[in-house]
Amino acid sequence: MRASFLVLIAAVALVGATHSPVAVGTLASGPNDAITDVAGVRVAQVTKIEGSDVRTGATGILPSADTWNDRVAAATFALNGNGELTGAHWVDQAGFLETPIVLTDTLDVGRADDGVISYLMSRYPHIGIDDDVPLPVVAECDDQGFNDIRGRHVTADDVATMLAGATGGDFPRGDVGAGTGMHAFGFKGGIGSASRVLPTSLGGYTVGVLVNVNTGSRDELIVGGVHVGRLLDKELLPVYPHAYVPPTKGRAADGSIIIVVATDAPLDHNALVDITKRAVLGLGRTGATSHVSSGDLLIAFSTTHRYPRAGGIAGPPLETDEERIDGLYTATADATEAAIDDALFSAKTLSGAHGATLFGLPYDRVKALLPR
Known about the structure:
Layout: E1 4-10, E2 42-50, E3 54-62, E4 70-81, H1 88-94, E5 96-97, E6 101-105, H2 109-123, E7 137-141, H3 156-164, E8 183-184, E9 187-188, E10 190-197, E11 206-215, H4 228-231, H5 251-254, E12 255-263, H6 269-285, E13 295-308, H7 322-346, E14 350-351, E15 357-358, H8 363-367
Parallel strand pairs: 6-7, 12-13
Antiparallel strand pairs: 1-2, 2-3, 3-6, 4-5, 4-13, 8-9, 10-11, 11-12, 14-15
Helix pairs in contact: 2-3, 6-7
């Protein structure tokens, strides 16, 4: 019998969690330095490791305790569209989000979609009878070459169970959930998260970001403003047996990134589109250039500007003060850069399908390259 390992990880405190040790910006982070620092946001993950070739999973982000009935303002943005973010058309048409967000591998999008529907129907028995039907929001990154992606190992039951177990607080990063089979900048990639809190004078709002990083080439990587990838161009290179050659063209050549931004600032769809674009600036600081083969997709939501299913709009007046909006832009860019760093430093060396080994980015080695 093949050894197998499946972990359902709810958003509970993780002793010894590794968050990015590189300072980004001047704003303070929240207590968890995570998307869950935005009140009400919960995260859960399922990690699937089996034998030598299954390295995959799923990550769920729930904006609130009842997003189905108390829908949150939202917007999506495709920096480069060689990827999938289901449900995006309705999010942008309606201006709100009414389902959890799930991240997984490319060939398990349909199964994750099914799992979201099962989860929602179990909680809302009138769905499809005298209630609306959901259009799940599922985003993917391609983990072929490190995971037996053809096996489609994430099931609908995995996702439904995962979502039912989501809680707030700290949660694992790196080689977990949808990030289990990811690569990034020639190192091991995966799940990262960060948050930034504006001072009271700018509203005291929190911006939280979660990323699944599966993008970038070694020579692109910048950490703390330093071209770390170029300085480590001969070190800790991925190991592939001679019998296997990783893809050099198409979707698997340069990978993708999914960026999820949450905030408690009262913003509508149009303002959240602008927020997603500032997240792209944070991505750019890490050196990523969004290759033709990349699926670089973003979604942002506000937990305080809401559209109850019963009708009307709920929440405080929309934030329109330009200084506060500028502060939110800065917080978004900084949190995105920090979340990508977090993914890189949290991911550890791992072996996967085809005998491949991806090395984690060692902080001590990077620290020696950064300015004092």
